[in-house]
Amino acid sequence: MRVRAPLVCSLCVLAGQGAEAAITLDLTSKDSIKAAASTIAFDLMSYYTGNNTGDVPGNLPDPYFWWEAGAMFGTMINYWYYTGDSTYNAVTMQALLHQAGDDFDYMPLNQTKTEGNDDQGFWGMAAMTAAETKFPDPPSGNPGWLALAQGVLNTQIARWDETTCNGGFRWQIFTFNNGFNYKNSISNGCVFNLAARLALYTGNATYADWALKTWDWMNAVGLMSPQYKIVDGTHNTDNCTQKDGNTWTYNAGIFLLGGAAMYNYTNGSALWQERVTGLLNASMIFFDESGIMHEFCEFGKCNVDQRSFKAYFARWLAATAELAPFTHDIIMGKMRTTAKAAVSTCTAGKRGTECGLRWNMTNDGSLGVGEQMAVLEAVQSNLVDSVPGWVSAVKGTGTSQGDVNAGTGSTANSRLTTGPVTTADRAGAGILTALVLLGVLGGSITMILE
To answer: Residues 187-213: pLDDT tens digits?
Structure first.
């Protein structure tokens, strides 16, 4: 994530706000859950313009950044996995393949100069989800989902940085981007999560080693406390002494699922059970007394990125319940309460079915991609017990083609200049993305770093 923009709600159409819930949800009925998910998914995909003539497949319009598009397609893979509805499979596959880049490592030329490690990581995790859920394989001549995920991890582990703070991954990839001196939990979490899941899928111990290395660094540097509380990040300018103490759902979730994958990979080791339990207990701060999920910024103002974080937390909680069954009852109890509260906010927008940000009240008027994603994941996660578990090469059930050397010949660096990013450089992302950035450069939106 390159920059953060304060809450933008120009699309908030408040028709039906405060009315009775427009979407009916009976959590004892799979058909009801699927029907609710279908309505929410339709409203989510109404924001997507990448399949329109003249637009770029895989991109979202202003004010959304590239990483969130990758995250959204991860949600749509999950939507297919949980519901069996293939309505959005074609646009999802098109986006995932179009944005893979020349080297099939999610370093596309139209994004590379402004791309951070976490941005790339979210696209890589979407590809990993496609492999794990047995999403339809790409057409012949394209790399498999597994190979795309491997390409992302291979390019990222090459960026392990021991010049400061005894290791860790930086937020930004290139020196000319703001945030290059910041080592944050989400960038390291992407590596940990993806490495752990690749280890589980392939059985390759090298991936597990990278997961352990990243986990150990997070603890040593103090971004994860002995009580498993995860804070946002630290600057290497003081050798990572001071910390940004903000806590976010997606940081908790990304390590929780990675830990669950390691628990499963190690055949239920006591060590990883203890770690997963600790992470889950620490994540309870993101539920109120009624058991409803929240993000702390909701008590003030969440920016565009932050409005989507609960989507990933919900997604990873459900997957954890599957991979680490001892967590199931606690997690699913929270997910049932959260889903019912979340869907009760889906009373706004043009159709009167769009969902809000805060789930402990009626629709709060905050509408958008993040809000829809979050409610969709909260609702469809309640189908986790009704679908087959994740496949893998180890179990002989995975069909996705891999490439252990994917990404190792990446030409991204040679395709870049060493100067700062210019408006002209950014224009390669397409007309809509260029308009977003021109608006930023013109001062129409106040930008803040995470």
So the answer is: 999 999 999 999 999 999 999 999 999
